[in-house]
Amino acid sequence: MAKRTEPTARQMRLAIELRRLRDAAGLASREAAALLGVTAPQISQIESGLAGVSEKRLRRMAANYSCTDEELINALVAMATDRTRGWWEQYRELLPTPFLDLAELEHHSTYRRDVEFLFIPGLLQTEDYARAAFSSRVPELPEDELELRVRHRMQRKAVLERPGPVPYEAIIHEAALRIRVGDRTTSRAQLTRILELSEAEHITVRVIPFDLDGFGGTWSPMMLAGGAVPRLDTAARDAPHGTGFIDSEAQLAVMRTLFRRVEAASLDPTRARDFIHRLAKEL
């Protein structure tokens, strides 16, 4: 297969999982290459996401690594053989790569969960809210790039609107609901939109109110996306240098625990809708 110059996050995740399988088997790359009948540099390219791998070769690798987890193997095969060129590809070289990686991750996810403290989660944002949020960026975005980012964010909603939508849960702090990213009209429309979306069976919205007793929780945004098997789940957290994907099992376990704690402390969906409805009436 042709050598890639810029693997996607999904291609890199496949590469990482194959390297983990080899490491778990206690094999050096040259030993794995000998078993597969290829060169060590070829194994290196596969494990760095620079080269693809066929289903036949991947299954041979799994056998050589003594991996007997058929669900995991089948999931890796699906990742290796997927040739989807999703809607996000139209933005390649127009928007930063992480925008495309996030859209691809959401497209393939089995569930999505968000925790937000200062902004409405992207999948729930109205167009006006998203435009106001991107407009506040420093340095200021050129008008054409701003509109590209808004359009991209609106298209991400396809995962919630398509047939067989992704189950989605958002936990939103009261601060995010009250902060006027745009004007009063934009804020009211945003709250109304959240209420409308929360009526869907596959969308759950919870709220963390200011007056919640004893809430330590987590104070940075958090995202979880379900993989075909739990081992392939992905988390993300914002940092000063940008959003980073998390895929190690130890870190994923921490993120799952944090999410469960925040979920347990938040208002249930019915009380959350009542809470948001009251805030909307105040505007």
Distance between the termini: 58 Å
What's the story with the biggest beta sheet? 6 strands, mixed
Q: What is the SS-derived class? A: alpha/beta
How many E-type strands? 6
Q: Tell me the helix content.
A: 40-55%
Q: What would you report as the Rg, rounded to the nearest angstrom?
A: 21 Å
Strand content: 5-15%
Widest beta sheet: strand line-up = 3-2-1-4-5-6
- What is the H/E order? HHHHHHEHHHEHHEEEEHH
Compute the average pLDDT. 93
What is the tally of helical segments?
13
Catalogue the unreliable spans: none
What form results from the Cα inertia axes?
A: elongated
Itemize the secondary structure elements and their pairings.
Elements: H1 9-25, H2 29-36, H3 40-47, H4 55-64, H5 70-81, H6 97-108, E1 112-116, H7 127-135, H8 143-155, H9 158-161, E2 168-173, H10 174-178, H11 184-197, E3 203-208, E4 222-225, E5 234-239, E6 242-246, H12 249-265, H13 269-282
Parallel strand pairs: 1-2, 2-3
Antiparallel strand pairs: 1-4, 4-5, 5-6
